[in-house]
Amino acid sequence: MSPAAPARDVRRLAIVALVLLAAAVALMAVASSGALAGRDVGTAVGLADERRPAATATALVVTEIGNTAASAGLALVVGGALAWRGFRAEGLCVALVPLLTSVVFTALKRVLDRPRPPEELQVMAVANESLPSGHAAMAAAAWTVLVLVLWPRCAARGRALLAGFAVLWVVAVGITRIYLGVHWLSDVLAGWALGAGLAFAGVAVLAAVTARRAAEV
């Protein structure tokens, strides 16, 4: 591999990170202004009207399995396994990205202080700040960093399975938050963009550190 290849990888990762984080900031700004209120309310009411007992029970299970603690725990376990196998930098990246995401989305929630959907739409009572969705952000962060770090170590079939499952799971977790009436659509979109953006940023830093170490050898 030429010396320019790692630099290109770092630039590509950084560009994707900037685009995603810019999208997250834009979504949060527009949502906070109330410009998306009509779309948010329409989506929330429409999904509430389509609720069925079996689907609601499934959504409750998915949203619980995909909570912020579970996403952080998954990242810590995989990160620890990578470090134990000798991939310390990769393991640290996988473990730290969701933890950083948790700090960032918690701070943003408190600053933006957006109310949750009204209680009559909620299947489960949640009263704290709404924007961005912590479930969506953490799921996106954990699974995006896992895919990016594990990608070079997987065969073609493994990559397809990993990426496919990651996308389906992150989407499912986010949709359950809207379906259950505890988040607006824009909360989830902003959470997805924020979590994925921080994951790409973390892996860009990892790639830059790895390239520098390789150049010094």
Automatic annotation (TrEMBL):
Residue ranges constituting the Phosphatidic acid phosphatase type 2/haloperoxidase domain according to the UniProt record: 90-203
Residue stretches spanning the membrane: 61-84, 91-112, 132-151, 160-180, 192-211
SMART domains hit by this protein: acidPPc
UniProt keyword list: Membrane, Signal, Transmembrane, Transmembrane helix
One Pfam match: PAP2
Superkingdom of this protein's organism: Bacteria
Signal sequence range: 1-37
Listed PANTHER family: AT30094P, SPHINGOSINE-1-PHOSPHATE PHOSPHOHYDROLASE
Protein name, entry field: Phosphatidic acid phosphatase type 2/haloperoxidase domain-containing protein
Organism annotation: Pseudonocardia kongjuensis
